[in-house]
Amino acid sequence: MSDPMLAEMDHTPTSAARFLGILTPLLGFRMRRIHNHLTRSFSERLGDQALRPGGFSALGLMAANPGMSQKMLSDELGQDKATVVALLDELERRGWAERRRDVADRRRHHLFITPAGETALAWMAREAVDNERGVVAALTDAEAHTLLTLLDKVYRGAFPTEP
């Protein structure tokens, strides 16, 4: 490796027994590793009520943005249109969300969470907080706030041309 920073990081362990080698400086690897752990344990907590990936986030976004478009939801979730349509089909089947046609443009739908969806979302939100409690406990309150702020900044950096 010709990059001195990468060469130095190759030998920096993340724990007493593990070396990450060329993965050491990669944000994506580190985020994916944490994401995989949290997603797996969250799904286990939800049991037979577990949703496909993005379901909880979709409900949360619809609750926060009543009437949002499918495109907006797709953009916020970072998922393609077909994946979001399948996700919405599942949420509607469960009675947790509904799509309403735009009266001005029949090709467009507005998304809403139902009362049953609000109940499910409240339960899942409590489970999500409990699921993350052990991970977040490794940080002080100030560090947790800083981490969330930095992650938002990194996310905005992923889309530099958007407002």
TrEMBL record:
InterPro entries: HTH_MarR-typ, MarR/SlyA-like, WH-like_DNA-bd_sf, WH_DNA-bd_sf. SMART domains: HTH_MARR (SM00347). GO terms for molecular function: DNA-binding transcription factor activity. PROSITE patterns: HTH_MARR_2. One of its GO terms (biological process) is response to stress. Residues 24-156 form the HTH marR-type domain. PANTHER family: MARR FAMILY REGULATORY PROTEIN (PTHR33164:SF89), TRANSCRIPTIONAL REGULATOR, MARR FAMILY (PTHR33164). This is Transcriptional regulator, MarR family. It comes from Brevundimonas subvibrioides (strain ATCC 15264 / DSM 4735 / LMG 14903 / NBRC 16000 / CB 81).
